[in-house]
Write a structure and sequence with these properties.
Distance between the termini: 62 Å
Strand order of the largest sheet: 3-2-1-4-5-6-7-8
Shape: elongated
Structural class: alpha/beta
Largest sheet: 8 strands, mixed
Low-confidence stretches: 1-11
Number of strands: 18
Number of helices: 22
Mean pLDDT: 94
Length: 602
């Protein structure tokens, strides 16, 4: 019979056993030892145990070199870490954390043995990120003392710890490990038991979609990764991250998520199975989506899929000296500024002379801020502004070599504009749309020169963001594609190639992730604050999903999600009702003062 758990029966968790001394287990042991805990490291492999000791010695030596640790303190840390190959070494631990391979059979065996060994008041924690904590707890002799304690890799650096409760877990046990996590300098987030929890639950769906996008040959691995790094500020692209995590690990997590949710977005992309079964599991094997210098290396080497130097564009670029920008909003102004700073003569056309003049004045203010920040000289700013000519009619585009539209995200409005540009612009001029989600080919078909129409999706703010998605339709000619890539290089932007389908690369991967975050809140699985914290601390995201939704605008987000759902017909892409309700209520984010959170009105 299990010993009752009360607030007073818990030990202060001074001695912690870590079962499994792979990369994660070793990292957790280091964190615990650094925080003054007595750490019992256990692994059936003597080699793994020896490697863990060596890793702690190396990590603490680096800390001494950097002045973060004294030599005496280092000796204390090392003395607190003892390794064993027998699970009986955990018998006197206050807390046992298992981080053995992601297999029910292996974990259940460990828990069965621990049940017979540890003290009645000990807490047992699983480090799983994919398997059911409830299932592990239910088969334990002490289910109220079993919970999930999910650290992130590398454990010494990553601040997030997900504390996972099952319906059987005692609140006192949760409080004890939460207090421990705080004492370790971590940010604990309380979550319920479902595959992936918060951070991985959102992250792995996104990674899976990226793998499927690559498998469909929609974009190259380099362009997918560059798009998400440059377009979203992520520390790594999704395919490189899959290689780091391990393709086989990702497949295991996704299979668990799909079993629980039956959401097709979580059904592992076939390429994950193919790579796993071929032993191409990522960095650890030396090859996954990319090829590495050797197993365990982070250095990518060229292989048969590496694009040639100079990019994939074929055809001879058309000369571009002058550019027309249609629109008067923030995006149009930013694009005009980018071209003017790069030395192009720019015609900035709006519906009225006042709007065009206001847009040019906005650019002048932006250039002045760049001067104030030391990013450009007064003379360079003045020269850039002089290159911009405001106009109140698209007739002013008669002699431009490239016309870029940046008007409202409304297909009928854009089609009418392209029909007008077709009549005004000279033969040979390239016509580009900055749409983020609408079909480029529809704009092309509104003209008599569909081969000269292409997507050129800048990101906001255009002067700061390096990414441009170059969107070819089935009608776009090679020389137009080559022209836009050459222009991007002259602008010092990073072009990524993709086909003409909803969301292109960035929005097609970003907005389902945001939508899934909304569903988590809608289902009362986690709070806004916990989800935002989880993705910033556990995923390295510059903003949490709800921070980002409020910045982008809930109405804009809903419109893009509707486009994605309409094109791909996947039930998992249907916008979350909570998002629709907030938009209907006029809660659109920062611009209205209220979205998912309250904001000061500007």
């Amino acid at each position: 019979m299990a010993t009752p758990l009360s607030d007073t029966s818990l030990s202060p968790l001074r001695t912690v056993a870590v079962v499994g001394l792979g990369t994660m287990g070793t990292g957790i042991a280091e964190v615990l030892a650094q925080a003054g805990r007595e750490v019992v490291g256990i692994d059936v492999s003597e080699t793994a145990a020896t490697r863990a000791v060596a890793a702690l010695e190396a990590a603490t030596a680096r800390s001494v070199e950097r002045g973060r640790l004294t030599e005496d303190r280092r000796e204390d840390v090392l003395a607190r870490f003892r390794t064993f190959t027998d699970l009986r070494a955990a018998s006197e631990a206050d807390l046992v954390i298992e981080v053995v391979p992601e297999s029910y059979e292996i974990k259940q065996q460990v828990f069965r043995e621990l049940d017979a060994l540890v003290r009645p008041d000990a807490i047992l924690a699983t480090g799983t990120n994919a398997l059911s904590v409830t299932r592990l707890a239910a088969e334990s002799a002490r289910p109220e003392r079993v919970l999930g304690l999910h650290f992130f890799n590398p454990a010494p650096a990553m601040r997030l710890v997900e504390v996972v409760s099952s319906v059987l877990t005692s609140p006192a046990a949760v409080r004890a490990v939460t207090d421990l996590a705080l004492d370790l300098g971590k940010e604990p987030v309380a979550v319920g038991d479902r595959p992936g929890f918060v951070a991985d639950g959102l992250l792995f769906g996104y990674l899976n979609q990226a793998a499927a996008m690559y498998e469909a040959k929609y974009a190259s691995r380099e362009d997918i990764d560059a798009a998400m790094k440059l377009g979203c500020g992520l520390p790594m692209g999704p395919l490189a991250l899959l290689d780091l995590i391990g393709v086989d690990t990702a497949r295991t997590v996704l299979e668990a998520m799909y079993t629980a949710s039956r959401d097709r977005l979580h059904a592992p992309a076939p390429i994950l199975r193919q790579l796993s079964e071929a032993g191409l599991t990522g960095r650890k094997s030396g090859r996954g989506f990319y090829t590495y210098e050797e197993p365990g290396s982070a250095t990518v080497v060229r292989d048969a899929l590496t694009p040639p130097a100079g990019g994939p564009a074929s055809g001879t670029a058309r000369p571009v000296r002058s550019v027309g920008v249609a629109g008067s909003g923030t995006m149009a102004s930013g694009i005009a500024e980018v071209f003017a700073k790069a030395g192009y003569d720019v015609v900035l056309a709006a519906r009225t002379e006042e709007k065009a003049a206001a847009a040019r004045a906005r650019i002048g203010s932006s250039l002045a801020r760049s001067v104030d920040k030391g990013r450009m000289t007064v003379e360079a700013a003045a020269a850039a502004l002089d290159r911009i000519t405001p106009a109140d009619s698209y007739d002013a585009f008669a002699d431009v070599d490239l016309a870029v539209e940046a008007v409202a995200e409304d297909l009928e409005v854009k089609k009418q504009l392209f029909a007008a540009l077709d009549k005004v612009c000279k033969p040979g001029a390239v016509l580009a749309t900055t749409t983020s989600s609408l079909p480029v080919v529809a704009c092309a078909r509104a003209t008599s020169r569909p081969q000269s129409v292409i997507g050129m999706h800048f990101f906001n703010p255009a002067p700061a963001m390096k990414l441009v998605e170059v969107v070819r339709t089935v009608l776009t000619s090679d020389d137009v594609h080559a022209t836009v890539r050459e222009v991007c290089a002259h602008l010092r932007k990073h072009p990524v190639d993709c086909g003409d389908r909803a969301g292109f690369i960035v929005n097609a991967l970003l907005f389902p992730y945001l939508n899934n975050a909304v569903k988590m809140v809608q289902e009362h699985y986690a709070t806004l604050d916990d989800i935002d914290a989880a993705m910033k601390l556990g995923g390295g995201y510059p903003m949490g999903p709800f921070e980002l939704l409020d910045v982008v605008g809930l109405d804009v987000s809903l419109a893009i999600e509707k486009v994605l759902h309409r094109e791909f017909r996947d039930p998992g892409l249907a916008p979350a009702p909570l998002l629709e309700h907030l938009v209907a209520a006029g809660c659109l984010g920062r611009k209205t003062g209220r979205g998912f959170r309250e904001h000061a009105r500007r």
